[in-house]
Design a protein that fits this description.
616 residues, six-stranded antiparallel β-sheet, 40 strands, 10% helix
Length: 616
């Protein structure tokens, strides 16, 4: 069954419109989504006309990643999706008369823009006629913040049957098709180190310079390669089990997966399309799972714990009682490398079950509620005691099943809401399930990349204002009406963003910190004449942070790991084992240095006591 790419449906007042950014507005005639009304990072990626898109989230891991220069395919494993995805892929298409356009987006949330010239997107398409078509896109030639700017160099190749070394592009007189530069753009945020590439693909067979000849059902493959400090590289591929792009041979040539192993995609005609049996789907977001405790990742040791999932019904019809089942599992707070370990099913108590089912009907476009209870036994309580094997703060994984399509089918809750003056939290880094280390019997190296949003080291004025969301900006006068009784398209888009926008983008308006984990695979590949060690991602974890009172800035650190750069850390994790780190987040008082803030407060308290004893 292929992955079905939906047709764009637009938003109220702008029905049928696809997502549109500034250079594309001149090509499709629609209003561009304004960065003024955007709350995404980088700005401009949260156009509400992306609603209903096909989405594939990462991280995922493979049991044994292999080089495209040799070796068999790895075994696919997947986690599902969450707010702490490293990379998100999105797809829609648009019909304009007899013409069609494919809209693709790769949004990278864990990266180091200082290495942006070494990052790459490889994407391949099978064509209705001719050899498969592969692009190698360098996102940008500069780490500076940009929005919808031209991408860096693009290389076009063809792929022979069986994959392997790519062929030289000779069509179009050997020139790169002009549609690529006109329709492909990059977004970069130099503060958060996030970047994205979005592409509009004109579909047709009349001119290879201006169109890509795609059939209704075609194969597509992509690999997003992220360069990390120390000549490390994290590849994110679809399908997840294909080989990693490598350069080899004499002369050295890029080797890619066999097109027979690429993923199947289909341009859906909507309800009734025999290739797409599901007319809609049920989804979860990270905000839809947790406990009813405070914080919602906390486990009460004595009283009942009620776990909940709130699936959203987007099927177009009512979901009847008992049609959706949710399995709840736990792991220690931190990063997990294998989707099957060490997640543990939660024992159900109090007459509840795990998996649990929806007990009431769920109307279309509303959220339901699935709950289960767990009251710990004495033996279970001992595991959470100080020094025990389990933390009172747990990662929650919920997997949906039943007689519906689910997108995604599983979500893990690895982001917590915390208050900070100084917050310390132990976290477990696990490589259980990955098998022998690169040097069998020795520890497997692990790495942590720190991502921060709205957490500058220095805040002027003693406070940090939350940026207004799209609706607030519209209310302040951005996107006022035409004055003729019709609403301006910019205003319609801002209103739609309130109703249809991703809640994760709004959550990230507050101070946010994430820790992205990677594990050494022992596999080396060649890129541009340099050897890179391939690392595989584990799940990320982190915090949405709130602070009351005056604020001078933010300080964070990781204890138990070696700092390699400002944002990058390493540690040794026992083979098929775990290691523990401590994350520290501190809201600084104005005029007080970061890690010394607590010392200064202690000194101040001593001085006050001395003053009280001996007088001024």
């Amino acid at each position: 069954m292929p992955w079905c790419i939906p047709e764009a449906v637009g938003v109220p007042g702008l029905f049928g419109q696809p997502p549109t950014w500034q250079p594309i507005a001149a090509l499709n005639g629609h209003t561009a989504w304004s960065t003024t009304n955007s709350v995404s990072t980088p700005l401009g990626l949260d156009d509400p006309r992306w609603q209903g898109h096909l989405s594939i989230g990462f991280p995922s891991v493979t049991a044994a990643p292999t080089s495209c220069c040799g070796g068999s395919a790895a075994t696919s494993q997947t986690f599902g999706a969450a707010t702490n995805d490293d990379v998100v892929f999105r797809a829609l298409y648009d019909s304009v008369g007899a013409g069609r356009f494919l809209y693709l987006s790769w949004w990278v949330k864990a990266a180091d823009v200082n290495s942006l010239l070494d990052d790459a997107i490889h994407v391949g398409f099978t064509r209705a006629s001719g050899d498969p078509f592969v692009l190698r896109i360098i996102p940008s030639t500069s780490p500076a913040t940009v929005s919808a700017a031209p991408v860096g160099p693009v290389t076009v190749s063809t792929v022979p049957a069986g994959g392997g070394p790519v062929g030289t592009w000779t069509e179009n007189g050997g020139a790169t098709p002009s549609w690529i530069a006109a329709n492909t753009h990059v977004w970069v945020d130099s503060v958060s180190h996030r970047w994205a590439v979005q592409m509009r693909v004109p579909i047709g067979d009349s001119n290879v310079d201006t169109q890509l000849n795609l059939a209704d059902t075609f194969k597509m493959w992509f690999e997003v390669s992220i360069e990390l400090p120390g000549n490390l590289m994290a590849p994110y591929s679809w399908p997840r089990d294909v080989c990693v792009v490598d350069f080899c041979g004499l002369p050295s040539r890029m080797n890619v997966p066999d097109p027979a192993d690429w993923g199947d995609f289909h341009l859906s005609t909507g309800p009734g399309d025999p290739a797409c049996t599901a007319t809609g789907f049920v989804r979860l977001t990270v905000a839809d799972v947790g406990t009813q405790n405070a914080p919602t990742s906390k486990i009460n040791l004595v009283s009942d714990n009620t776990f909940e999932a709130k699936p959203e019904n987007l099927t177009g019809a009512t979901v009847n009682p008992g049609e959706i089942h949710a399995e709840f599992r736990l792991a220690n707070w931190g990063s997990v490398a294998d989707p099957n370990a060490p997640w543990s099913p939660i024992p159900a108590t109090g007459g509840s079950t795990n998996p649990a089912s929806n007990t009431g009907s769920i109307a279309n476009a509303t959220k339901g509620l699935i709950t289960m209870k767990w009251q710990l036994s004495n033996a279970e309580r001992d595991q959470f005691a100080p020094g025990g094997p389990k933390s009172r703060h747990q990662c929650i994984l919920v997997t949906l099943s039943g007689a519906h399509a689910f997108n995604p089918a599983s979500v893990w809750r690895n982001m917590d809401f915390v208050s900070a003056s100084t917050m310390l939290r132990a976290a477990t880094i696990s490589n259980v399930g990955l098998g022998p280390s690169p040097v069998p019997g020795n520890p497997r190296p692990a790495y942590i990349l720190v991502e921060k949003l709205n957490m500058p080291p220095t805040v002027s004025g003693g406070s940090q204002d939350r940026p207004p969301d799209a609706t607030e900006r519209a209310a302040d006068g951005h996107g006022t009406g035409h004055g003729n009784g019709e609403q301006d398209p910019t205003e319609l888009l801002a209103e739609a963003a309130k109703q249809l926008g991703d809640p994760n983008d709004r959550l990230e308006q507050q101070p946010t910190i994430r820790y992205h984990a990677y594990h050494d695979t022992g596999l080396d590949v060649n890129r541009d004449g340099r050897t890179r060690r391939v690392v595989r991602p584990g799940t990320a974890f982190g915090f949405f942070v709130d602070h009351e009172g005056d604020l001078g800035g933010w300080h964070d650190e990781i204890r138990g790991a070696t700092q390699l750069t400002e944002r990058f850390f390493s540690l040794e994790v026992p083979e098929e084992g775990t290691a523990q780190i401590t994350t520290v987040v501190e809201a600084l008082e104005p005029g007080r240095p970061g890690c010394l803030g607590a010392i200064w407060r202690f000194i101040e308290s001593i001085l006050k006591r001395i003053t009280g004893l001996f007088g001024p």
